[in-house]
Write a structure and sequence with these properties.
38% helix; 208 residues; 5 helices; mainly alpha
Amino acid sequence: MSERTPPPPDERPGGERGYGQGWGSPPPPEGGGYGGPPPGQGGGYGGPPPGQGGGYGGPPYGTPPPGQGGGYGGPPPGQGYGGPPRGQQGGPGGGWQPSGSGTGGMSSNVASGLSYVLTFLTGAIFLAIDRRPEVRFHAMQSILFGVAWLLVTILRRILDFFPLNVVLWLAYLGGVVLWIVLMVQGFQGRHYKLPWIGDIAEQQASKA
């Protein structure tokens, strides 16, 4: 029996050639080489997954999605560097000022307490420059209290005999304690009203 010689490469089934492919072997898949990504997927060695930036000519990694502001260390969307928080307006020159500020950026309780520092002197100043009702009440009460305290001090000098000098001296000490109480109550933002004097202060402050 004679040996059968294999047909030449051109006569193999399917006309397939190449080293390592036998007769009837399927053709290699399209797309990708050795170690390459499967067909239908982008990216090469170390490339980003499909649908993400960072490829050739694309945005760098870490870039926020379109429509959202701020990158690494950037300000939140809708807010610039050094701008006021949302819902609060900036003052003159672009600076931020707290809301609810009164004359010269002073809060109501601070202005009320300061109106008692020099009694009727500071009371007259705040009554003239501040239009807030609570501050005007404390300023008017400071004026009336200061006038009454000054009157007691003058009477102590004039009526310097017993028993009026003792009564006026006690009244003067009571005025010192009451002056401190009025300042503390004003700085705490409380509507502390003296008898008789407080009623007159409310009436006068409401007229302006």
